[in-house]
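User: I'm putting together a small comparison set for a docking exercise, and I want a reference complex before I start. The sequence is below, and the ligand is zinc ion. Could you produce the 3D structure with the ligand included, as C-alpha cells?
Assistant: Of course. I'll restate your input first, then give the C-alpha cells for the complex.
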Amino acid sequence: MRFGYRVRRYDLREPLVEKLVCNGFAHLEWDWRWSGDGYSPVPSVEELNYAKDICSQYGLSISIAGPNGISIAEKVVPLRKVSIGLWKEIYLASKFLEAKWLVLELGSAGFKSEDSAKKRERVSIAKDAIGDIIQNTEDGPLLLIENMRKLPEGSLKCYLGDDATDLLYCIDGLVDRCGLIFDTGHALIGENPEQCFNLLKSSIKAFHVHTNNRISDIHRALTREDISVNGDYWTSVINLIHLGVPAVLEIDSLSAALQTKQLITEYRS
Ligand SMILES: [Zn+2]
C-alpha cells in the first residue's frame, strides 16, 4: 500500500514532512489551490526548489493538485487560451518537480447537471485542451482528471466531470499520459457511488480518500461505521488500495487522517 497526504501550498514545511515520514506516508500531494491572493498559480522557482529538495531529502514522492478556477473548458475562446497557457506552465512546473501526477479538475458550467448534451460539449472542449497540454511537453507526469460531486437537483450550475461516462470520454485516446484520480467523497455525493466506481475502475491511477454525509463535501475521516453503511463501495475502493493504487488522504487533521490510514491498512473484506 502506498499512502500520501494532501498538503496545502503554504503549509509545506520541514516539521510536517518529517511527521509524515515518521507516520509511514510515502507520498505527498502538494495542493496549489487558488488562495485568491492575485499572485501566479505557479509557485516561484525558489518555492519549487524548496519542495523538490525537501521531498528528495525525506524520500517522498510528490504529486500536484493543480489550482481550481482556471478552466480549460472555458466557453470564451480568448479566456480559454489564457487558461490553457497557465496549465501548460503548471504542467511544466510539475515535470520540473518530477511529480508522479498532476490533478486537474474540469471546472464548472452554468447549466444544470441533467443537461448532458451541453455538458458533453464542454467536456469535449476540455479533452482537446488536455491533448494540447500534454503534447506540448515530452515525458511529463500523468495528467489525472478528478471525478466531481453532483450538485443538488435544481442547481443552475454543475461540475464538468460529475458523470462517469464523460470522464471516460475525456481521457479516451490519451491513456498513456492521462488517467483518473478517484475522489471517494465526491462519488458519494451522487446517486450510485458503487456503479460510478465500477465504471471507472480500470482507469483509476490514484485515489483521493475522505468521506462525508453524502450531502456536503466535508472531507472527514473514514470510520468503521461508514464502511458498514456502504459496504460494497468501500470494500471495492479499499481492495484497489491494497493492490497498490496510491491513496492520498484529503483530510485536514493529520491525526484523523492517521486513523483512516490505519483502518484501511487493517481492513479485510
Ligand atoms: Zn479530491
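The first helix runs from residue 14 to 22. The chain has one domain: 3-266.
User: Thanks, that's exactly what I needed.
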